[in-house]
Amino acid sequence: xxxxxxxxxxxxxxxxxxxxxxxxxxxxxxxxxxxxxxxxxxxxxxxxxxxxxxxxxxxxxxxxxxxxxxxxxxxxxxxxxxxxxxxxxxxxxxxxxxxxxxxxxxxxxxxxxxxxxxxxxxxxxxxxxxxxxxxxxxxxxxxxxxxxxxxxxxxxxxxxxxxxxxxxxxxxxxxxxxxxxxxxxxxxxxxxxxxxxxxxxxxxxxxxxxxxxxxxxxxxxxxxxxxxxxxxxxxxxxxxxxxxxxxxxxxxxxxxxxxxx
Length: 261
Ligand code: PEP
Ligand code: MN
Description:
Blueprint: E1 16-20, H1 27-38, E2 45-47, H2 68-78, E3 82-85, H3 89-97, E4 102-105, H4 113-122, E5 130-133, H5 140-152, E6 158-162, H6 179-188, E7 194-196, H7 198-202, H8 208-217, E8 222-226, H9 244-253
The structure holds phosphoenolpyruvate and manganese (II) ion.
Phosphoenolpyruvate (PEP) is lined by residues 22, 49, 53, 106-107, 133, 163, 200.
Organism: Luteibaculum oceani
Protein name: chorismate mutase
EC number: 5.4.99.5
């Protein structure tokens, strides 16, 4: 079965690469990252978190609406489509008003059917691609349900992001990959593209390449990799971000299968 390609904005391309910082910190950081990423033709979409769903209060929670014009500059001056996370109706309206190209629903929000339903209703009839991260808990039905809520409101360009699930035991990985969850998801909906997020699975930049390779070996359709000009100084998720140059090296080393098996 032929997969739908996410958004006419994005050329048919395997794998789809979404890159950019965990958080849009400053206008300079956003533009510097985007310009560097643009040098690598394999990067299709620029990502940045504007509203950040932090697990506990007291850490950087995003610049909010103030950062939207920075992303507009990435779109118009750098020439990359831009993607942000939305977690409520206000975020959706502001993102649409700012001309954001792609929205994604984060792992804490996709676990909440009320929030997803409100977002779906705010997007009713809007022609914009929406990606849904798997919920923080290993519940394939909840993940599928979130996509179904969007589909029922007429969203046609849907994609899934596999970012692993929370775990109680300490591990070398920040989140348990739960590959079976992604495999099951794909069995249920083979037409929805699935993108792997090795940044949030690993929490560790050294391990991103190997998780990304596993995803490609499993025929994932794309990768979302957090990228920052100075990762150690990042305001969120510092240990998992890579520089644009490191991202290019990771992509160089990946073995990309071209067959449709
Ligand atoms: C993110 O992509 O920066 C993020 C907050 O991810 P997740 O929802 O997977 O935790
Ligand atoms: Mn992050």
